């Protein structure tokens, strides 16, 4: 086969020099120009006689060659392993492995080879999501965990059995090692499930196994090894070292957790609220427990960069001086976050007629959910909201008022154990006091109209949660599947008393919130016995600049287990630009929470084979609804709670996401 340059001169041969000399010289000039411009492409040809630099090869013969022709850069995904691109031409069955020094995208390589026009949209239309594609485009990954080789396609590329089989046949002949096809999204996983004609692997989970920085910052503090039993007793000068993420933690100066957990767990949200460094570091307890009880400096930057070192003598001196001057302020210098309330409204109001501005009457949770309900397909379950007025009336009754004033006057000087005991005693006083008869009458009227025979959720809606600078997630109590009037009354008092949960008190104290200004509204909402539930963020929390993707956490059953941090939920990212779902992690939870017919909830075992919670279609629909609600909120990034029963999606909370 002749080279392009040789072919060009063969074409010149018939030209008669005497009669066509100008044409000949013009053609010769073009040939010289083309020879200089096309040399790299010519040299890259497998048939080229002389090679000074190869841009692609047609076979990978051994591990050393794979190492040379692959890269570890995986676009920000940690512990992805080395990978290389491949392109298969379907017209001549050529397999091409481009060199990563020249090409990081299939399109760039195809364009350089004359296989793509200068139009990325057209290129995608011709080569993705169709059996008639001209090129088959994918990657080969050497997984850094199990050291195996996997053939993968891009997330959102709809691959048929035909394309799978054709690709495997070509790559098997062109690659030195055994290889399996591994899906990159839920659609591909479902497509591969029934194929037995070649080796397949479970879906790739992009779960980071290196250090992950959830919240950047720098802090001095005493490194202390904590667990779920001791986390709420942590001193405020602590940098917490934890094996697993607890449900709650007292305000601390930094957090290091060994086991991965969702960015939407309560621990992660608290760290963002407090603006303290927060990291997941594999084997952290083993690495750092030698400094348990020592003063250390923890520094964390975006991109998984961190340092942990013993404090210097100068840092220790500065730390002790600052601690003396700030101890009093740390335990409750009020009003750094102003709380607003309007106690003039007495009437319970249906959620459908509440406005966003009514947050001063009913709390941000009620007002923001009512605003989200105005979005098409949000399907917010019907609810009523009890205004702040009735909580204020309740705590103004003599027995509660006396106990509350006594506690607030003495609490700044209380030790942690005493503080916890006194708070429990105060909560008991609130629960023992009967509800006002006028409030009971309003609830009864609403109950007859809406949910006499349905279970309801009774949830907090205070003026000290769901705020842009104070999320308050997990601080206050909710009571699920309440099925009688008497149980509703008790649930309301339980929710009101949770204003004085230890973790809520400490979190407000750390934020500088004046406890005397806290008011509690109540959301009473028809319950959904969910098949799946969870939380989504209308951005990609792993890439702060990516505000078009939606990050979704999901578990089977009711959503209480999504945010507690004990088990990893299913984590997905839907990218509307490629219409694809990427799996960050599958849920490792083996139970789900469901309604009891008599009221309340119970845990039920899950079949381990049914770990996938959401289909591609459900994830996409959730993301579309989430983005629509975000648009309604003026483009503000949101943290949205959702439930699914059958195929129906319902939204049950929308609040600002603290980034």
Q: How widely separated are the two ends?
A: 60 Å
Helix fraction bin: 25-40%
CA radius of gyration is: 31 Å
> What is the number of beta strands?
26
Tags for this entry?
single chain, 32% helix, disordered N terminus, 659 residues, globular, alpha+beta, 26 strands
Describe the structure.
It is built from 20 helices and 26 strands. A hairpin with a 6-residue loop joins strand 4 and strand 5. The protein is globular, with a radius of gyration of 31 Å. It starts with a helix and ends with a strand. The N terminus is likely disordered.
List the helices and strands and how they pair.
Blueprint: H1 4-12, H2 21-37, H3 39-44, E1 56-57, H4 63-68, E2 82-89, E3 95-98, H5 106-112, H6 120-127, E4 135-142, E5 149-152, H7 161-174, E6 180-181, H8 186-192, E7 212-215, E8 217-226, E9 238-242, E10 254-257, H9 266-274, E11 278-280, H10 284-288, E12 295-301, E13 305-310, H11 313-330, E14 349-350, H12 359-362, H13 364-372, E15 383-386, H14 388-395, H15 398-410, H16 416-432, H17 437-450, E16 456-462, E17 478-482, H18 485-497, H19 502-511, E18 520-526, E19 532-537, E20 550-556, E21 570-575, E22 580-585, E23 591-595, E24 601-605, H20 616-632, E25 638-645, E26 648-656
Parallel strand pairs: 5-6, 8-9, 9-10, 10-11
Antiparallel strand pairs: 1-3, 2-3, 2-4, 4-5, 7-11, 8-12, 12-13, 14-15, 15-18, 16-17, 16-18, 19-20, 19-25, 20-21, 21-22, 23-24, 25-26
Helix pairs in contact: 1-2, 15-16, 16-18
């Amino acid at each position: 086969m002749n080279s392009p340059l040789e072919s060009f001169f063969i074409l010149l041969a018939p030209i008669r020099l005497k009669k066509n000399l100008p044409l000949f010289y013009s053609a010769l000039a073009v040939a010289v120009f083309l020879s200089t411009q096309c040399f790299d492409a010519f040299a890259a040809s497998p048939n080229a006689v002389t090679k000074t630099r190869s841009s692609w090869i047609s076979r990978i013969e051994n591990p050393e060659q794979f190492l040379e022709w692959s890269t570890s850069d995986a676009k920000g995904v940690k512990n992805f392993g080395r990978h290389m691109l491949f392109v298969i031409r379907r017209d001549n069955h050529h397999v091409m492995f481009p060199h990563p020094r020249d090409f990081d995208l299939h399109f760039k390589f195809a364009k350089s080879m004359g296989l793509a026009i200068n139009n990325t949209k057209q290129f995608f239309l011709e080569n993705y999501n169709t059996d008639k594609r001209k090129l088959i485009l994918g990657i080969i990954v050497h997984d850094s965990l199990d050291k195996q080789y996997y053939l993968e396609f891009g997330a959102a590329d709809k691959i048929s059995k035909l394309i799978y089989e054709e690709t495997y046949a070509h790559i098997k002949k062109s690659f030195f090692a055994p290889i399996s096809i591994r899906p990159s999204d839920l659609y591909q996983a479902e497509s591969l499930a029934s194929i037995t004609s070649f080796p397949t692997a479970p879906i790739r989970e992009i779960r980071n196994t290196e250090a992950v920085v959830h919240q950047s910052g720098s802090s001095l503090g005493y490194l202390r090894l904590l667990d779920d039993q001791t986390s709420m007793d942590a001193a405020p000068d602590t940098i917490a070292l934890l094996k697993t993420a607890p449900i709650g933690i007292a305000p601390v100066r930094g957090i290091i957790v060994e086991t991965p957990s969702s960015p939407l767990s309560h621990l992660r949200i608290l760290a963002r609220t407090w603006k303290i460094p927060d990291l997941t570091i594999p084997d952290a307890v083993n690495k750092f427990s030698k400094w348990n009880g020592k003063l250390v400096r923890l520094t964390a930057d975006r991109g998984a960069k961190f340092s942990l070192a013993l404090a210097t003598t100068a840092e220790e001196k500065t730390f002790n001086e600052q601690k003396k001057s700030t101890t009093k302020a740390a335990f409750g210098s009020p009003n750094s976050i102003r709380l607003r309330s309007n106690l003039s409204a007495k009437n319970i109001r249906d959620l459908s007629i509440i406005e966003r501005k009514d947050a001063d009457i009913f709390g941000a949770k009620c007002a923001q959910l009512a605003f989200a309900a105005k979005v098409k397909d949000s399907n917010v379950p019907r609810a009523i909201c009890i205004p702040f007025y009735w909580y204020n009336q309740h705590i103004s009754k003599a027995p509660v008022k006396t106990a509350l004033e006594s506690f607030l006057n003495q609490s700044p000087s209380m030790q942690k154990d005493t503080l916890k005991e006194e708070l429990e005693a105060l909560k008991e006083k609130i629960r023992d006091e009967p509800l006002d008869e006028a409030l009971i009458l309003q609830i009864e009227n609403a109950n007859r109209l809406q949910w006499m025979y349905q279970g309801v959720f009774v949830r907090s809606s205070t003026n000290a949660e769901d705020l842009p600078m104070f999320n308050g997630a997990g601080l206050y109590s909710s009571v699920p599947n309440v099925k009688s009037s008497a149980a509703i009354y008790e649930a309301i008092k339980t929710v009101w008393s949770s204003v004085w949960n230890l973790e809520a008190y400490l979190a407000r104290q750390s934020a500088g919130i004046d406890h005397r200004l806290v008011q509690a509204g109540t959301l009473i909402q028809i319950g959904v016995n969910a098949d799946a539930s969870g939380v989504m963020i209308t951005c990609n929390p792993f890439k702060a600049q990516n505000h078009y993707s939606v990050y979704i956490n999901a578990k089977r059953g009711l959503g209480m287990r999504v945010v507690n941090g004990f088990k990893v939920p299913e984590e997905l990212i839907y990218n509307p630009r490629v219409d694809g779902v990427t799996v960050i992690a599958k849920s490792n939870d083996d139970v789900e929470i469901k309604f009891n017919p008599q009221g309340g909830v119970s845990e039920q075992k899950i079949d381990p084979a049914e770990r996938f919670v959401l289909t591609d279609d459900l994830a996409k629909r959730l993301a579309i609804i989430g983005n629509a609600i975000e648009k309604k909120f003026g483009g503000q990034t949101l943290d949205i709670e959702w439930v699914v029963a059958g195929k129906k999606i319902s939204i049950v909370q929308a609040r600002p996401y603290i980034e």
